[in-house]
Every structure is written in C-alpha cells, then in structure tokens.
Amino acid sequence: MTDIDDTATVVLNTLCDVLKEPVDDLRARPVLAVHDWDSLASLEVLSQLESRLAVTLDLRAYHAARTVTDLIDLVATTAATNAAIGRRG
Amino acid sequence: MNDVTELLDDLREAVAGQAAPAPAVRRRLARVEDPAAVRRAGRVLAGLPAATPDLRPVSLAVLATCTIGPFEHLLRAALVATGVQPALHLGDYGTFDLTLAAGELAGSPDVVTCLLDERYFLPREWSATDPDGLAAHLEDRFADLRGLLLASLRRTPAALVLHTVPVPARLRESVISWRARAAVGRAWHRLNADLLGLAGEHGRITVVDLAGELADHAVAARDDRLHAYADLPYTDGALLVLARQVARVVAARSGLSRKVLALDLDNTLWGGVLGEAGVAGLQLGGLYPGNCYQDLQRTARRLREQGVILVLASKNDAEPVDEALAGHPEMLLRQQDFAVRAVNWSAKAENLRDAAETLNLGVQAFVFMDDSPFERGHVAAELPDVAVVAADGDPANLVRSLLRPGWFDVPELTDTDLRRPELYRSRALRTDFSTGFASSEDYLGALRTRVAAHPVTTFEVGRVAQLSARTNQFNLTGRRFDEGATTAMSTDPAHLVVSFAVSDRFGDEGIVGAAWVECRGRIWWVLNMVLSCRVFGRGVEFAIVDWIVRRARENGATALVGRYVPTNRNGVADGFWEKAGFTPSGEDGTYTVVPATAPTCLPTWITYLDTDDD
Q1: Can you tell me the distance from the alpha carbon of B574 to that of B597, in angstroms, rounded to the nearest whole number?
Q2: What is the pLDDT of residues B139-179, one digit of tens each?
Q3: What total number of domains does chain B contain?
Q4: Which alpha helices (H) appear in B306-403, and where do they start and end?
Q5: Looking at the structure, do residues B246 and B281 belong to the same domain, yes or no?
Q6: What pLDDT is recorded for position B328?
Q7: DSSP E strand stretches across B40-157
Q8: Considering only CA atoms, which of B280, B265, B270, B166 is closest in space to residue B223?
Q9: B229/A44 Cβ within 8 A
C-alpha cells in the first residue's frame, strides 16, 4: 500500500466515523455538503485527521475542500510537504 | 489492534449492550493521553442510556464564554471514566451571561460547569502603556462575573464549577517593557486568585486551577487558529486536562471517592525486601532512593490526616514488619497508623476482601498500591472494583502515581473525615470487646450506645449531604439530596431534615445517619433515610425511625409513610420498614404507620441523648 492509499484510508475512515455514513456511500456521493458536513462535523474531522496523521492543515485550504477526494489530496499534500521539510531539517 | 482501537471497541460493545463499561475499561479510558482518542470515546459514550446500572447519574450543564465544541465529548468521557453517567445540557453560544442572570438552567442540573476564556475578561482595546487601567478592567469584569454567579446560586440548588484562565501569551508578549509585563502578569494572576477565592466565599462553588494544572502537563494551552476561526480558545489537550479535573469534582460530589489506601511494604513503602535485607538494610530516608519512599510515607500520612484509612497489605512475616515499623528511625508510618494490618502470606485479594469486611466497607472504597505486577494483576482480576496503582519503576514517581488520579478527593473535609481513621481503629477495638458475651444483646447493652438526634444545623449540612452522596447500602430510596437541596429543605417548614449522631463507650462516631421528611399536612413522608455502614448491626436505624415517629406524633400527623426502593446495593435494608412496625400499603414499596398508636421500636440498649428539637 502506498502513502496516498494509507492517507485515503484514514480520511475515509474518519469521515465514516464522524458522519456515521458507510464508506460506499461516501464513495458514491463524494460531495461533502450532501452529508451532515456542518461546522461541528468539519472541526471534529479536522481534529481527528491532524491527530492521527500528525499534520497541521491550512484551515483556508481545508474549508475549500469540496469533496472527499479534495480532502484526501489536501491531507496527502500536507503530509508530503511536512515529510520533505523533516528530511531537509 | 492498537490500545485505542481496542478500548473504543470495548466502549462500543458496552454501549451496544446498554451497559456501563466495566471498571477496568473505565480505568483504561482514564489513562488515555491522546485527546483525539478521548474525543472519539466521548462520542461513542453519548449512546449510553440515561440510566446505566453501575454508573452514578448526574445532570450537568455546561455554560461557556466561548464555543463549547469538543469539551462536551471530552467531559463525557472523563465523567464515565470516573463512574458518572452524565446527562449533559449545553448552553447556547453567546448566552453565558444571560443564562446565569436569568437563572434558567435547562435540565435542573446538579452541577453547572463554566468554561471561561480570556476574551470574557479582557477589554477589546487596551493600552500597553497603562497596565493599571488593564488591571482595573480585569477587576471590574471579575466583579461582574462574581455578581452573576452569586445571583444564579440563589435561583438554583446546583453546584458551580469554575476554573482559572492561563495567562494569554499575546497579552504578556505585546508589552515590551519588563516592568509593565510584570504588572500585566500580576493583574492576571490576581484575577485567577480572585476566581480561586470564590471557592472560599460560597460552599457550592468549586474552582479548578486550570492554569496551575497546565503548568504541569506537556500540552499547549491555546490553539490560535481555532480560536480565530471558531472561538475555540483551548487545545483539545488543555480541554482534556480541564475535563478530567471537572470529572474529579463531580465524582467527589457524587460520593465516588475512595476511603481506604492499602499499601504494600517491600519496594513500595520502603526500598528493598525486608526478608532479605533486614531492617537495617531497608532504603528509607536520606538520599535517593530512600528519600522517595519516605516521601510516599509522608504522603500517606498526610492522606490519613485528612480521613483516608490506611491498610497494610504485605507478604511478609509479621514480626520483622512490626520491628521495622516500631524501630526504624526514618519510618514515618507506625503500626497505629494502619486500621488493618494484613501482613501474612495469603493472597492479597483475600486480605483486601477481609480488610473490607473488618472495616464494613465495600472493596470499591479501596485503592491498592503495590510494586509487583503479579500482585496488581491478581487483585485487579479478583476484585475489579479496587483501584490499583503501580509502584514499580522509578521510586521518584511514587507520590505522583498515587495522587494524580485524585482517588480520595472530597468537596470539603468534614469533622467525620478528620476523625475517620480513629473511628475505624475504635471499630477494631469494639470487635475485640465483643468476645465474651452470652448474647449479642448483652454485648450491645454493655456498649452503652447513645443516639443524638435533632433537625440539621447549618454546620451539619455538609456532613449530611456527604452521607446522602456516599451511602449506598442502608439507603432506603436511593434519592440523593446534595448540600443545596438539604439546605433548602432544612429551612422549609414543610420539610424536616434530621441528623443522627451515635456514641458509645469507645467514643463518638459523629453523625452517621440522616432522614429527609416531607411534613406537609397530616401525612408525613420519609423521602429518604440513610445510615453509615460504620454502625450497622447495632439497631441505630430503629432508633432513627422511632425518633421520627415520636416527632410525627407530637405534631399531630395521622400517618407516617416510608418507602423502600431496591437498588443493586441496598439489599441490606430490604424488609426494614416491616421490622420497624410499618405495614405495607397498597402502593408499591410504601409502608405506613399511625404515629398515635405505633409501639416504640427503640432497641432497649439505645438511649437518646440531647433530643433537643429546636
């Protein structure tokens, strides 16, 4: 499994957990707004993702994410950037 | 499967079965350090039913000067971990002042916890060149808050829990002169000192020192990003620290505190193994590591001073242990400090069970501290209600390991707390005295038991409320009247709250029983009656009910009604009303007597003392 697969799994599991939706539903209807994606749920997901993946997401980019895929891409990119900074450091 | 996943699965299983998580699962939850995991646990536990056997139900309102957000989940998880089943009522955003001013609290909460942040106290604009002006503003804001809190306490019997607020870094750092920075810091610390002072001002206010706690935890206090975005000033880590402190307060108010500390000796109360090193070879006092063991003894002694009963639980020969306790020059704890000394080669679980029986307390009142993983594991398996503390690892951590969970917290110390260790020693002496009598009546007669009864006074309300919270066995209806409710009833002519104190030839037990009676009209109702397990088997419960019957008769009551509501702990009181001469009435669990014609049920070996009714 690649890093992006790992990230995708964590993002999907977190969304399932917080939104109480089966993963197939999220895949079939990936636009977050069609689920109970309110401010409380989005903050809960943010907290869980930052804790599980040890990343700090840019809030502006986080709120711009419209779909599950956008969210996976954002988290993966942030994780890769953090890793690169870590390697340089 | 990692520890958190396993814990969450255990919690989900409990929720699915609509049952309380097992004590061991709750203690694992109490140890989780990752706030995100605790948040998840709190969300899972929201599915528990309102009434869960084995958890103490508490209605709790959360009011906040900011967004409550994750504090809800963290608080629920922390409360369940301590044995409380919370019904949480969350105040709406932006309604903190209004809710306190109107005193309209949803759900008639037992406890109101207030989540405070710096914006509540700070002016929108302030001048860095005028620290005195800032200090004056903080004082004014505190005065506003104090006024609101004291006014709300007049309208609700609930207890309030507040906290100190850590100094905002941006406040401190935006002042560039060190002199002014010190003045700003001083003003903020004074605000926190004023907040803490509220606890001394009103018995129903408790203040958690969050700022002090955070100084001892490796977590950031604030999250600037979420503060700016969602008015969430604190990090999840800081909120978890606060939630656990609030849970300790609620648990203590709910009578879930432990009363007994059972301690191992070798490598716990002293370093080394007595049987191998001998008394002279023990590590105790002086330099490291002996100073760490002595610190633990000092801590245990301090707990004893505050009413915690000490028990020795050691696999050793008794004689050298007595020699060490009596003769070692650095020993701070001596034989007489322990209410029970179980020094033998029996299994420790068995010894703890016996000690509980001797003290007439449940094992859920026990904390057991031992360095051996085997002994801890065995006790945990045999007696899951006993709280187990690890004493292995670096002895420098012994005191922190024992104190950090707050097992023995109480809202405030009563006279009985201070005397409890002596009372339990008297109990052991009484057991010795009981040998050599032809019948138990002879024995009880020789004890010369005296009961003092009177309507509860202001000074006794705290102890009576504590009895209500802590008494599980002889608790006839399970209804718990806290300090607020007891105070209200004690000043209401339609209610009577009575305290009962017991003394005998061995000493004064203090207040051990209480009754809450509704005396509106000609029919009197005993709302609840509780009796400490310390005086079981002496007929004191009959003296209490006899006193109430007399009082009802004097006041012209035509009937006195009592009730027994079975709980999973009060089987000892089953059949009590009938034994006291009451007749079952048609309604489920109620019993009646006509005071005018009721024969006395006062045991012949008990006399009333000081039955001043005024």
Answers
A1: 24
A2: 999 999 999 999 999 988 999 999 999 999 989 999 999 99
A3: 3
A4: 318-327, 348-359, 373-382, 398-403
A5: no
A6: 94
A7: 56-64, 84-90, 111-115
A8: B166
A9: no
Q: Which of B509, B503, B485, B529 is nearest to B609 (CA)?
A: B503
Structural domain boundaries enclosing B172: 53-253
Residue B12 lies in a domain: no
B297-328 pLDDT, tens digit per residue, is 999 999 999 999 999 999 999 999 999 999 99
Within the 43-72 window of chain A, which residues sit less than 8 Å (CB to CB) from chain B?
A: 43-44, 47-48, 50-52, 59
pTM of the model: 0.76
Residues in chain A with CB shorter than 8 Å from the CB of B35 are 51
Token pair in block for residue B85: 């089943």
Asked if the C-beta of B227 comes within 8 angstroms of chain A's C-beta atoms, the answer is no
Q: Indicate if B211 and B329 belong to the same structural domain.
A: no
- Could you tell me if the ipTM is greater than 0.85? no
Q: For residue A59, which residues of chain B lie inside 8 Å, CB to CB?
A: 225, 229
Domain ranges of chain A: 3-88
Residues 6 or more apart whose CB falls under 8 angstroms from that of B284 comprise B270, B271, B290, B293, B294, B297, B328, B330, B331
Within 8 A by CB and 6+ apart from B27, the residues are B81, B387
Same domain, B268 and B229: no
CB contact under 8 Å between B69 and A40, yes or no, is yes
- In this structure, the answer to whether residues B98 and B145 fall within a common structural domain is yes
H or E element, residue B314: strand B309-315
B372 C-beta neighbours (distance < 10 Å), count: 18
Which sign does the torsion angle of CA B214, B219, B220, B225 carry? Answer: negative
What kind of architecture, by CATH, is found in domain A3-88?
Orthogonal Bundle (1.10)
Distance, CA of B603 to CA of B260 (rounded, Å): 32
B43 contacts in chain A (CB < 8 Å): 44
Of A17, A44, A51, the CB nearest to B34: A51
Asked if the bond preceding B86 is cis, omega within 30° of 0, the reply is no
- How many interchain CB pairs under 8 A, A with B? 27
B226/A51 CB distance under 8 A: no
Across B574-598, average pLDDT? 90
pLDDT tens per residue across span B114-147:
999 999 999 989 999 999 999 999 999 999 999 9
Q: In this structure, what token pair is assigned to residue B346?
A: 């029996």
Question: Residue B404 pLDDT more than 60?
Answer: yes
Residue-wise pLDDT tens digits, B500-535: 999 887 777 788 999 999 998 899 999 999 998 777
Q: What is the pLDDT of residue B614?
A: 38
CA dihedral B55, B61, B67, B71 (to 10 degrees): -20
Average pLDDT for residues B94-112, to the nearest whole number?
A: 89
Whether residues B593 and B537 share a domain: the answer is yes
User: For the residues of B176-195, what is the DSSP string, one character each?
Assistant: -SHHHHHHHHHHHHHHHHHH
Residues B26 and B110: their CA atoms lie apart, in Å, by 22
B76 vs A: CB within 8 A: no
Interface test with A, best of B71, B76, B229, B232 (most A CBs within 10 A): B229
Residue B470 half-sphere exposure, CB side, CA atoms within 13 Å?
28
pLDDT confidence of residue B571: 82
d(CA B515, CA A63): 59
Residue B345 in any domain: the answer is yes
Measure the CA–CA gap between B343 and B313, rounded to whole angstroms: 6
